[in-house]
Design goal:
3-stranded parallel sheet
Length: about 70
């Protein structure tokens, strides 16, 4: 499984999530593995957002998200 973390959930990050979700079946087929958005990293909260369960408030400490233990 391909696990994806998107840094930022503004115009660009939100667009990345939308494109991945919209094209998930095609991406899965071409890559030969299922793709999953595991985290969306942002400083803000997005209550009521369809991906709210994937949003992680990182507080600017992006280093911890790169560790093998976290992923």
């Amino acid at each position: 499984m391909i696990q994806v973390a998107v840094m930022g959930y503004g115009t660009v990050g939100g667009g990345v999530v939308e494109v991945i979700e919209k094209n998930k079946e095609e991406i899965n087929k071409k890559s030969g593995e299922p793709i999953n958005i595991k985290y969306i990293l942002d400083l803000r909260d997005f209550p009521g957002d369809p991906y709210a369960d994937k949003i992680s408030r990182c507080g600017g400490d992006f280093k911890r998200f790169g560790s093998k233990d976290y992923l």
